[in-house]
Design brief:
mainly beta, single chain, four-stranded antiparallel beta sheet
Length: 85
């Protein structure tokens, strides 16, 4: 998700942020605003950099369409499976 000045003035100009959202807080806030938690993403590599929590306007968020790749991202943790399951 791209977070720039349309979502919050703190991300205006060259301070835009790509965020892989992990949770959306369900606590009440100001109308049209939301707390998001996730990881800032390096746009060049797609790798997660740091965990972030941001307060943004829902109407200003720009959602990037998901990829059609069936493989997990290169920085995803492997899934542990039990034998015989």
């Amino acid at each position: 998700m791209l977070i720039d000045g349309r979502a919050s003035v703190q991300f205006g100009s060259d301070r835009a942020l790509w965020l892989r959202v992990t949770t959306v807080c369900d606590k009440p806030t100001y109308h049209g605003w939301v707390w998001l938690t996730g990881y800032s993403i390096d746009p060049a590599s797609g790798k997660a950099l740091t965990r972030r929590e941001v307060f943004v306007q829902i109407g200003g968020l720009q959602i990037q369409p998901g990829t059609t790749d069936s493989a997990p991202p290169s920085n995803a943790a492997p899934v542990m499976r039990r034998r015989g399951v």
